[in-house]
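During the no-cost extension, the postdoctoral fellow (Dr. R.K.) reprocessed legacy sequence entries with the updated structure-token encoder. One reprocessed record is reproduced below for audit purposes.
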Amino acid sequence: MQSFPFTAIVGQNEMKNALILNIINPSIGGVLIRGEKGTAKSTAVRALTELLPQRTAAKCPFRCDVSSDSLCPYCSETLSKGGKIETEETGMGVVELPLSATEDRVAGTLDLEHALKTGKKKFEPGVLAKANGNILYVDEVNLLDDHLVDLLLDSAAMGRNYVEREGVSFSHPSKFILVGTMNPEEGDLRPQLLDRFGMAVDVKSEKDVDTRMEVIRRRLEFEKDPDAFLKKYKKEQKELRDRILKAQKTMINMKLDDEALKTAVEASLYFGVDGHRADITLLKAASAYAAFYGRDRTMKEDVASIANLVLTHRMRRNPFQESAIDEEELKNWIKNL
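Re-encoded structure tokens follow.
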């Protein structure tokens, strides 16, 4: 099934920026997209497939990154015996987790009978294995059982999935970009889970008549002739993909101004954000933002540009209080630095 082109999505710039920045720097920690139905949340995530870069992966069930020290038991065993891990070029993809998934399907299962009979571990990979090196997408993440959300966030933070059954354990790399979408009207995530998402975006339907007309026009055009529509945006898609690849390379030698560091820290303090995770994430996102716009130095203006995406869901606030940072307040705060 063909996906709607990412560059053809009208508006929703904050959502698109958040997704792009996470591709440039996966260590940002993923993104949570909150909004009413029909605001292109799922469309945008699935459209990322055409923009994702190629990577070198091992020919193992977990598609290990051989340049990393975190390998699966099979690849580690191959190296310990003096062998060479076979690799191939493969594209990143979007792996979807259905709401009906069980813990075994997510984490994978150990065959205890096989282990007892042969003395060797036999592991049936789950979604977390398939997600390694890819984007893991959870639609309606707020409706997912809390223990499964905890499992996803722990794996995302540690970069490994650990499974233990009756004293038998197995672990494998599970590094992915976690993307969740949800409709707040159907319930929210616990605050401690919100904090684990690197960025959060609140999206709303377009209210401008002309913009709304363009949204409908493009969607109908795509449904009428997908091939012709995709061809129409082929150049823009390639330009954006090349820009993302260039930004990833720029990130390698990215420099950080002390003013940017100070701005990130003071922003967290000013807007009442607890802990240091927000400061670190804010700088990572700001660096990716600078790289995306062709700069090799992160400045305080970059921090200010994406502060809203990193801090709003971490702010201490009273019930029924608006979650977003007021843009004018943010601008005034930056001017007074």
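The mean pLDDT is 83. Residues 18-53+92-203 form a domain with the Rossmann fold fold (CATH 3.40.50.300). The remaining legacy entries will be reprocessed before the final report is submitted.
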